[in-house]
Amino acid sequence: RKPRPGAAKLPPGSLGLPVIGQSLGLLGAMRANTAERWIQDRVDRYGSVSKLSLFGAPTVLLTGPAANKFVFFSGALAMQQPRSVRRIMGEKNILDLTGAEHKRIRGALAEFLKPDMLRLYVGRIDGEVRRHLDESWAGRGAVTVMPLMKRLTFDIISSLLFRLERGAVRDALAADFMHLFDGVWAVPVDLPFTAFRRSLKASARARRVIAGIVRETKAKLERGEASRSSDLIACLLSLTDDSGARQLSDEEIVDGSMGTLIGGYDTSSILMTFMVRHLANDPDTLAAMVQEHDEIAKNKGDGEALVWDDLAKMKFTWRVALETLRLVPPVFGNFRRAIQDTEFDGYLIPKGWQVFWVASATHMDAAIFHEPAKFDTSRFKDRQSATAPPCSFVAFGGGPRICVGMEFARIETLVTMHYLVRRFRWKLCCDEDTFARDPMPSPLHGLPIELEDMSSP
Ligand code: HEM
Fold this sequence. Notes:
- Keywords: Heme, Iron, Metal-binding, Monooxygenase, Oxidoreductase, Signal.
- Its cofactor is heme.
- GO terms for molecular function: heme binding; iron ion binding; monooxygenase activity; oxidoreductase activity, acting on paired donors, with incorporation or reduction of molecular oxygen.
- By secondary structure, the chain is of the alpha+beta class.
- The chain has a single domain (23-453), classed as CATH 1.10.630.10.
- Helices cover 49% and strands 11% of the residues.
- It has 17 helices and twelve strands.
- It has helices at residues 23-31, 35-46, 65-73, 83-89, 99-113, 115-118, 122-136, 145-162, 168-180, 195-223, 232-238, 250-280, 283-298, 308-312, 315-327, 359-363, 406-423, and strands at 49-54, 57-62, 77-79, 142-144, 333-338, 342-344, 347-349, 354-358, 424-428, 435-437, 441-443, 448-453.
- The strands form four sheets. Strands 1-2-8-5-3 form a five-stranded mixed beta sheet, sandwiched between helices. Strands 4-12-9 form a three-stranded antiparallel beta sheet. Strands 6-7 form a two-stranded antiparallel sheet.
- A hairpin with a 2-residue loop joins strand 6 (342-344) and strand 7.
- Helix 13 (283-298) packs antiparallel against helix 15 (315-327).
- The chain is globular and about 70 Å long.
- The termini are far apart.
- The model has no long low-confidence stretch (mean pLDDT 89).
- Protoporphyrin IX containing FE binds next to helix 5, helix 12 and helix 17.
């Protein structure tokens, strides 16, 4: 719908203070675990379309399924991260590419992350999960879940992306990734001792390591010691156009790998952490999961790795994951930028303004998800789209920019849960069941739990 010039008016709301706008209000609410409320208060006050100013730019907050659809599909909006994110991820990261350039890089990543390719790696993921549980969980009376899940997903993803085996390089890169996203939503002022400055430094070091891995992989491919299916970097280096020329430059490969690592690292680890948190207090769901996984294990030999077909049988576990993602979406929301004047619901969104979509606005809407605060896996029983309007469950986004790592996330979550629920039982150490966002959600104290290893004599 093209706006008639001068017909539409700006959405209600205020742009707040120069530069800072409402950034500190939102960030404060995120840290206090009241961000959903903060957004809802705005919706109650101004309606589903309102203006504000976030992270240095005038912004329109859009909420509801129709608004999500508009954000995900409108040609008038381009993906663009706040300046703070761009500075950490690099100007050419996939989250900031648009048009043909985005299509090319996304196509290349999708080539590696498609189910046909990922099915080859289930065994490698299985090995990483078992080793991790043996080394970091088994034999301990208590563990802190969040840092362990972060390390696990980092190890899985770096093994698949770079074939980066255990050792000093992997440890150093993991340490940088631990802090890469600290302060990623920030007023982008690079001052000493800030989380933002730490993130910038960690990102620069990580890029240098990845650039080194790209050089090594290139040499290995030339010597015939690696093939297209060895890992993501080998796959990207092997993509050629009709004339046989390489499709992606080294820099594009570094940025693409960095983007995939960032996209996959914090998100899946958060999902698994919050599943552990939920299962501690929901014995019925845990029992149903155990039954599903026992059934699968019954048909396998001792120590035999999971395969692709086993994952297809983990339907209930995936529903538990989806319901966890609905209640605690790792990605709170994200930004777009209007590349031309556009209009939504009668309101003008001027060229250059940010647009902000927020997952909780639909995930917690009682008109879409009945009793939204209740954990109920049956919501996802018959394909969620049957009961909810399109673009209501948006934990993975939607449209042409929908999460390209969704299948990867599914595999690593299912494999991890398989071994976790069959081997361990746990209790939460903190009675207070809260979490903060910065901007990714993190449970109180990283979720310490008391652990019982059922396999130990
Ligand atoms: C539970 C786990 C995950 C969640 C909740 C999640 C969530 C999301 C969301 C919401 C978006 C879209 C953002 C937007 O449209 O504004 C996205 C995009 C993306 N995700 Fe994921 N993600 C997860 C796992 C992964 C994994 C494992 C990978 C990589 C292996 C990955 C890589 C990416 C990439 C590269 C994009 C950008 C796609 C594009 O712009 O075309 N994600 N993710």
